[in-house]
Amino acid sequence: MRRQYDGIREEVLAAIARVCDSQSFILGPEVEALEREIAALTGAASAVGCASGTEALWLALVAAGVRPGDSVITTAFSFFASASAIVRAGATPVFVDVDPGTLNLDAALVGRHLRGRQLRTKRPENLCAILPVHLYGQCADMDRFDRIAQEFGVAIVEDAAQAIGAEWSGRGAGALGVTAAFSFYPTKNLSAYGDAGIVTTTCPRMAEHMRQLRNHGSPRRYYHDEFGWNGRMDAIQAAVLRVKLPHIADWNRNRQQHAATYDQLLAGAGLTSGLTSSQTSNQLAPVRLLARSPQAKHVFHQYVIRAQRRDELRKFLAERKIGSEIYYPLPLHLQPVFSYLGLKAGDMPVSEQAAREVLALPMFPELTAAEIRCVVESIADFYS
Q1: Which residue among 136, 164, 207, 303 is the one 20 to 30 A from 174 at the CA level?
Q2: Which residue among 224, 247, 270 closes a domain?
Q3: 243 and 371 share one domain
Q4: Is 283 found in the same domain as 239?
């Protein structure tokens, strides 16, 4: 973050000064301009700025028609907000396991789940929507999810929090479902200097509804048609994001190049069997790479490996002052807060195994080839 800031410092400070001089601190022209720019980037019809990625998920779900008593299918392997936003909308999360290769929500399993339920009920579990997460910057299999949505008459709501600039078959994340939520948390590819988020939609009517919901359900000041929330975006965050937005394509390309360097060096060190696009990889290799779909333009929010003796490896890297992170150590269906769903260990075996193996290595646009080489050499030292 420091390296990126040093390169755009003067632009950022000028943008913040512009907001301070305007004395328009919440919503206003900066947010409206960012909304237009994000809509253009993603190919969506409209975008609605809000206070956080979590707020964006809630707005996206409610605008898509999720109501109390409904159910929403989502992945068991994601950040907590993917499921907590469903609960906040009054609905029940229905967890389904992930694809063993990409760790994205498994569309084939979702289809089998729904067809089995349909045998017993006309509309499975009051299902209203499916919320796939574009995990680590790679889009879920949106071709299959589109077919499922048409078959069952449900909405697709994208959790694109990690996927700004990603694509599926040439279409931008954010324009692949009826609504999509993005996060601008400070660690994201496109990051604010605090919390901020945005929702994109293919439906301008939904955008107007979300603008009302983010402002206490108010279409005009002091008049309230429904219960909304205070989910407005700060103008300073919008101004910072607008400085960064013209750089996002280059920053994402840098991430892709860094991923290719990791791939090459890990394979050259004999740590992997090479990149695979299938669901399985060499079980004998100490490091396994996640699969990459040929239809996907991956923006590598994280570069994640699956590692034998993961926790020991992480401790070893930390001793060498190399940062790493686990996304995510406990699948959602095993979180104590979701115990009321009655799920248990063994119900989502792929998610549970991934939680024991995944490790995110350093990944940011300003990373150097020498730093990547140091990381890989340290991993090789550990396994030697």
Answers
A1: 303
A2: 247
A3: no
A4: no
Same domain? 135 vs 235 = yes
- The answer to whether residues 164 and 214 belong to one domain is yes
CB 41 within 8 A of CB 98: no
237 and 283 both lie in a single domain: no
Contact predicate 263/292, CB 8 Å: no
How far apart CA 179 and CA 185 sit, in angstroms, is 19
Residue 71 and residue 186 share a domain: yes
- Amino acid identity for residue 44 in this structure: A
In Å, what is the CA distance from 255 to each residue of 140, 159, 263? Answer: 19, 20, 12
Q: Render 103-121 in DSSP notation, one character per residue.
A: -SB-HHHHHHHHHHHHTT-
CA nearest 72: which of 382, 380, 332?
A: 332
Q: What is the DSSP letter of 358?
A: E
> Would you say 82 and 159 are in contact if contact means Cβ atoms under 8 Å apart?
yes
Helix (H, G, I), strand (E, B) or coil at 227: coil
Record the tokens describing residue 228, joined without a space.
Answer: 């909304």
SS3 96: strand
pLDDT tens for the chain, residues 1 to 384: 788 888 899 999 999 999 999 999 899 999 999 999 999 999 999 999 999 999 999 999 999 999 999 999 999 999 999 999 999 999 999 999 999 999 999 999 999 988 876 444 444 568 889 999 999 999 999 999 999 999 999 999 999 999 999 999 999 999 999 999 999 999 999 999 999 999 999 999 999 999 999 988 877 888 788 888 889 999 999 999 999 999 999 999 999 999 999 999 999 999 997 554 444 444 578 999 999 999 999 999 999 999 999 999 999 999 999 999 999 999 999 999 999 999 999 999 999 999 999 999 999 999 999 999 999 999 999 999
Q: Give the CATH number of the domain where residue 82 resides.
A: 3.40.640.10
Q: 50 lies in which domain range?
A: 2-247
**Pair 214, 339 in one domain:** no
Return the SS3 of 171. strand
Q: Name every residue whose Cβ is closer than 8 Å to that of residue 65 and which is 6 or more positions away in sequence.
A: 128, 129, 155
**CATH code, 367:** 3.90.1150.10
